[in-house]
TrEMBL record, chain A:
Gene Ontology CC, one term: cytosol
Organism this protein belongs to: Halorutilus salinus
Residue span, Hydantoinase A/oxoprolinase domain: 167-429
Domain Hydantoinase/oxoprolinase N-terminal per the UniProt entry, residue ranges: 3-99
Family matches, as Pfam families: Hydant_A_N, Hydantoinase_A
GO biological process: glutathione metabolic process
Regions crossing the membrane: none
Protein name according to UniProt: Hydantoinase/oxoprolinase family protein
Source organism phylogeny: Archaea, Methanobacteriati, Methanobacteriota, Stenosarchaea group, Halobacteria
GO molecular function terms listed in the Swiss-Prot or TrEMBL record: 5-oxoprolinase (ATP-hydrolyzing) activity
Automatic annotation (TrEMBL), chain B:
Single Gene Ontology MF annotation: hydrolase activity
A family per Pfam: Hist_deacetyl
Key words, A-Z: Hydrolase
Record's protein name: Histone deacetylase
InterPro entries, A to Z: HDAC_I/II, HDACs, His_deacetylse_dom, His_deacetylse_dom_sf, Ureohydrolase_dom_sf
PANTHER family registered for this protein in UniProt: HISTONE DEACETYLASE HDAC1, HISTONE DEACETYLASE HDAC1-RELATED
Biological processes per GO annotation: epigenetic regulation of gene expression
Residue ranges annotated for the Histone deacetylase domain, each copy included: 20-300
Entry keyword Hydrolase: yes
Domain of life: Archaea
Keyword Hydrolase: yes
Natural source organism: Halorutilus salinus
Amino acid sequence: MILGIDAGGTNYDAVAFEDGSVVSAAKRSADTDDGFETLLAEVVEKVDGSGNAEVDRVVVSTTRVLNSAVQNRLPDCTNVVVPGVGLSPELAYSGDENLVADGCVDHRGRVTEPLEIDGEPSHGVVAVTAKFSTRNPSLETEASESLDAPTVALGHESGGALGFPSRAETTVANAKSKPVFESFESSLHDALDETGIDAPVYYLKGDAAMLSRESARTTPAHTLRSGPASSSLGLVALTERYAETPSLTNAVCVDIGGTTTDVTLVKDGFPALVDEVEAGCISTFYDGVVAVNTTAGGDTRLDEDGLTGVRDGPAVAFGGPSPTPTDALHVLGAVSEGDATAAREALSALGDPEQVAEEVVEGFVSAIAESVRSLEGHEDVPGTVVVGGALADALASRLADRLDCISDVIVPQNAAVCGAVGCAVASVSVRTHVHVDTARGEMTVASAGPEKVEEVETGVEYEEDEARELVARETAEATRRAGGDATLDEIEITAFRSFNVVEDGRVVGQITDATARAEPGRRKR
Amino acid sequence: MTLALVYHDDYLLHENTPTHPERRERLTYTMDQLREEGVLDHTDVELVEPEAVTEDEILRVHTPDYVGRLKKMSEEGGGALTVDTHVSEHTWDSARLAAGGVTDAVDRVLKGDNQTSFVMSRPGGHHAFADHAHGFCFTNNTAVALKHAQEVYDLDRILLWDWDAHHFDGTQSVFYDDPSVLTMSTHQTGRTLFPGTGYTDEVGEDEGEGYNVNVPLLPKTGDEGYERVVDEVFEPIARQYDPDLLFVEAGQDNHFTDPITDLGVTAQGYASLMNSAVETAEDVCDGRVVASLAGGYGVEGGLPYTNLAVIASLARLDTSNVREPATYEPPADGPTVDGAVSKVKEKLGDYWEL
């Protein structure tokens, strides 16, 4: 059994998932202190009444890093760069403070000048990025050992792609995200311990693949689009399982949350991706799902002018302080759960309750429709929309009426907990960069987390199929290190090149350089 | 965007022999350096994928007989044109793509899409004559591109500066009688280096007399020597000729680590050469500069840094930190260029005020 947990800003959702089906589901307000514990206890209890169900793994999506980033609540960071020779180090100045250290690694991964750091970081959060560190991480490691900072992120652990300025930027993003992510994940892990769940924990990345707890702690900026990734993945899985649509290839997914609404795009059965995800003051070179976020949700406070974009708490129908779109839907009889009388009373303060409710729901649906239309910049918007979130049933057909481009509306069973389902069906995939230099006798494998540096036999020249197999093997192993279990057949090599190293007129070795990943997908079981 | 950087992965396909100096890693190490520096993501740099030129465009420069021979040899899987110039199955397509890269780079700048352009291509071209080839070159890519430019655009004058360590014998022969392309070569003297030509008295012929400038330099000539040639020969001629376009055939084999030449230019020296070219172009032809990689065989210690230096200069990026790693011992001071400069002044004094 898999536990999927979607920790949004308003609600925590959880599902127990087995054999492709939702076995139990639970929802808790994120406002309460014991949110996780009661949520976990409830979802496990519901499975068979015993609370002793065997959990194979726990997969979590979280908007915590994103929310802190957009609200400018991330800590300041000292960005230590080791630019070596080349363009101006200023291109990599992405910290609140930037410290340039001496030292140089060349394109072959050789340390050509030793590390020397002049100056002390003024912040406790530190990022260290050296040029060509993915070919040789030793200067970054040395720097991190010499700096006595409580939080450190390293460039080679942030990703394997070449691009010193963007790697530095991503490393800063990871460093700044670490404290908030660590506090989130330690509270979750305390709750898991309390509930007696002892299973490996994974986090959903913004590209809708998951990462082990350890790798996520190293690269928490991967979670920036975790929320929309989980709902998108979950709505596809739920549609295929419950909505008599055995294969959903292209669709728009809408997840109506309490504070915000996410619109995502599904292409060829998987969430469509963009590169270089950023939020607030942080930027990364990570992929993330195409997502449009509207600050309008079921709990958005209403005033005389309609939606305010701010959430004070739950709807009045659920004991909250101010009227919301959920209360408006109560007045229109579109939802049943909660206190309808209280909702009507709250709306009366703003005018004729029926009229206010109509206007509010109209405005809410328009805002969502506007997000869907803004996807048009990406590609042709598909004619199918899948709607999730607690208000999906109440709003889906109104939304479809608003959008000429939509012909089919689907609200699959369990749509209210689609994000948690998305977590449960995710698989591990990490973009892996393999560099083999048999002249130097060294191989580096960089993905997310500590890089593998290994000696290889010097002077060897691989045939192309041998080299490709080596790349696939290393990528499968990197996937395992990130918590996955890809077979060689599931490895996709996206870039590959190989050439001889010639010294003094002799071939002394070979360089193979490749990028690969386990094909991201959804688990069928 | 300021700079169009023209590159295609198919430039890696052509190979002479496995240990030949003109190998694919001339480009791969540089491309790694450019990627790692973030040059390809820079807002002032546009990566352009070139298209091959047609056979007809090649025939503007080369004879049908030679083109037929080259094409056939390539189609049949390979052969050798000379002892060091080998044809492989990819050579014909690669040569057309290299000429296409230079042509696209010229188009980019002349259409005004980019201020400057740089072509990261191979095989090179400046030793290719109309009817034969040698020196690792097959088609004269620059000549093909400039003939195209003359046909398509309203250009009166093009200034071509070839700073490769080897004399541009093929290019000189194509434009020898053509005053609309002023060809200038700075190179290690033919007395000590292939192809053995390129003396100051080769000044052009017929209408092209005075429009071919050779500056043969002594072995070990370094940054300072090159700077003097720029100040005393290149710049005055550029200002007097007043071209519509400046083309730089950027051979990176003047670098002190180059294994097959014997000059002493550093990465900083290259940055300053290209800065001079760009600044002169800003004065005389609205900053229109097209540059194309020619030679350069210091694959590890030279090309990544010299290419970065000239590309960054063309994109107007800060080049002050572009240098070789400290593991490379810098060159000693080079010889004076007094002799070469005064020879040029003597031979070309009738045509230009030097």
